[in-house]
C-alpha cells in the first residue's frame, strides 16, 4: 500500500511539473524532464523489483520507457478543449476564417484543407503551438467548409 501512495504522489508531482514546463515552452527543459523522469522512474522500478514487487516494478518500468520515448510527456501535457471553452470563443465570421487560414475569395474544399493542414503543422500543441490557436484554426476550417456544403 505505501508503494501505491508513493506512485500516486509521484504521478501528481510529475503532472504539476509538466504543466509548469509546458508554460515555459523550453525544448531543452522538456528533454531534461523527459529523460530525467525516465531515469527516476527506472531507478524506482529497479528498487521495487529488488524488494520483490514485480507488478509495481513493471508499471514503473513501462512508465520509464514511455517517458524516454516522449509518449508519457505528450500524455501529461495534452489537453483537449472542452465544448464549453470552444463555445466561449464565439462564432467567427467568414472573413475572419479566411484571414486565419490566409485564404482569399472563394477557396475550394482542397484549398481549405491544405491551408488548414499547413498551418496546423506549425500551430499544433504537440509542435509547440497553443491549444487556443489550434482551436481557432479548426473553427476557421469548419466555418469555411460549412459554407461550401
From TrEMBL:
Q: Which SUPFAM superfamilies match?
A: Chaperone J-domain (SSF46565)
Question: What keywords tag this UniProt record?
Answer: Membrane, Transmembrane, Transmembrane helix
**InterPro entries according to UniProt:** DnaJ_domain, J_dom_sf
Q: Where are the transmembrane segments?
A: 6-22, 31-50, 56-77
Q: Which PROSITE patterns match?
A: DNAJ_2
Gene Ontology cellular-component terms for this entry are: membrane
The entry's localization annotation reads: Membrane
The UniProt record lists the J domain at 96-149
Q: Which residues form a coiled coil?
A: none
- Bilayer topology annotation: Single-pass membrane protein
Q: Which family does it belong to?
A: Belongs to the TIM14 family.
Protein name (Swiss-Prot/TrEMBL):
J domain-containing protein
